[in-house]
Structure formats: structure tokens, C-alpha cells
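ok so for the tutorial part 2 we go from a plain amino acid sequence to predicted C-alpha cells. step 1 is just haveing the sequence, like this:
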Amino acid sequence: GRVLTNQAPLNVVETVLTVFPDCLMYNPAAFFMACRHYTTNQSVLVAMVKHSLSSRDPSDSECPFPWILSDLVTVSAAQAILEIYPQGVLEPSPMLSGKTLLDYLLRSSELQKHQQESGVSSNLWTKLKLILVSAECSQQANCNACKKNGTLSPAHVLLKRVLSYPDFFDNVSVARNTIWLLNQLASTDAWIFQKPDPKGIYPLHVVLQQECTPQHHTGKVIARELVKTLLQVHPQSARCLLHQRLPIHWAVEHNWPCHDLLLAVYPEALDAQDSTSELYPFQIAAAAAASVSTRTSAPCKQAESMSSVSALDITFELLRANPTHVRPMPAKHHGVRAEA
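step 2 — the prediction. this is what the C-alpha cells look like for a chain of 340 residues:
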């Protein structure tokens, strides 16, 4: 403690770490002191983090720095730590109730509390952005190159993560927190929703490519709010193709209750055929309804029943919007009747 309090030079700190290799084990206070006393020079903190990681048990899969969310850790210090070991944000910690740093912030209302106290410019808000970037970097072969050429996609990371939660459509608190986070990010960093990733995928595509499986009406409301938020920040994405398909094609195929939201932004999509199947949106919805109705898995019976009814409702609404589309389907879809 005295070594750090007296702002000892780097070589002295390294000597202490060599003589006392376990001095940083379960000792976040040492890192807090380094943040406090080395505000303009992160070299000591970097050396401490690297030492801590080098003495770590290879079988240890816990996050080595869950305390990074503390107000005692500055943003610059957090950035220095995450650049050394970005995959740490995806490792769980008992200090975070078994959650990862990323999941803890996405699933809790901690950020909302900080926003009320300090505004969206709070340190914790900035740390969330760093954690999103780190989560993506941990899965990239060359993260530094991605940072330099601006190809990182933090919005994609956030959406993929929350949609991976099995309870997302049924957990109102988590869904509400996600919508709040998206709206806050849209107000401070709208650009992350307005650019595709290197594969040409927009955030709206990330969502609509996933199957929408709400168990109750509340889940459908959550699904609509999620799509509505993305369209508000980047309405042009309703026109953007992915694999030669419009968002409405993906939406009706995967039972997202948002066809009206997409058509409000891009009404011409109603008359657009899917380039692969040559089906109109109402026909894709009908095919989706037929597919759901053939499933008999007992555990999913309620969700599948709701999906089937939803798909039929969507089919009717799309057909009613333009009845001139009534015509026989291509032969490969003869099992789904297109006649009224």
C-alpha cells in the first residue's frame, strides 16, 4: 500500500511484485490505489494487471476484474485494463452474482440509477461502451485493425447478447432495461445503429434474423418495442437488403409482430418478392404459419400456438393491404395455399 501511496516508480513496483507474487490476489484495493495515485500514467496499473493475469490458475474462468465497475476505477484505467484482457468481460464472477460484466450491466438497472444521479455522461455509462467494444474484440482476430478502420459494431454485440437470453421475451425488467439502454445509446451514439457490420448486417437485421418466441402477449409488446426503437434511430434500415431479402421478409418468416412498423417506413416492401423464394410477404407469413402448425413438441406447444395465430393474423393483414397479390404460389410452396 505504501509503495503505491508514495507513487513509487514502475521498476520499484515490479520489484515488489516479484518479491511478493501473491500480493495482488483478491486485493482490489491495490488496484483502486493505483488508479488514485497514478492518474496520468497507467504503466504501473498495466504492470499490476499483467502480473495478476500471469499468476492466474490456467483453469480459472472467473473474471479477474469485476471491481472495474467501481467509481474508484477511472475510465482511463478501465480502458487500459480492458485492452490487456478484453475477454474478461465475458467471464462470470461471484461478485456479480455469477454474471459477466456485460450481462450484469444489460440485465440490471444499475445504469439507470447512475443516469439519474450523474446523467448519461457518467463513468459507468462510458464503461458500458468500453465493455461492448471489449466483448467484440475478444471474438475478433485483429481487434486493433477493426478499431482503426471503424468496423466495430457495438450495437450488434448488445442485441445478439440480449436475444441470446432464454427469458428475454418473458422477463419484463430485462427487456425494459434493454429498451432503455438502446434509447440512451441512440441519443448519444446514433451512428452505431446507422452502419452495418463488415458483412452488411444492420442492427435491425440482427434482430429479425432471430426467431421471435414470446410466451405471452407481453412478449409480443416487447418484440414490437425493440423493433420500433431500432426503426426510430435508423428508419432507412427497413429498406436495406440482407442476402437479397428485405427486413419485412425476415420479420414475417420469424414471426416478429412488426410488419406494420416496417411498412409504415417502407410501404413499397408490401409489393416486394423475396428473391430466393419468389414469395410476397403475405405468402411468407402463410408459409410460416403452416410450418408452426406442423410442430408437436409439447414443451413449446403454447408458444407455437401463439406463433401460429400471430402468423395467420399477419398473413390476413398483409393480404388485406393489397388483395391483388392473391395468386397461386410457386410449385415448391404448393403446401401453402395462397387463394383467399
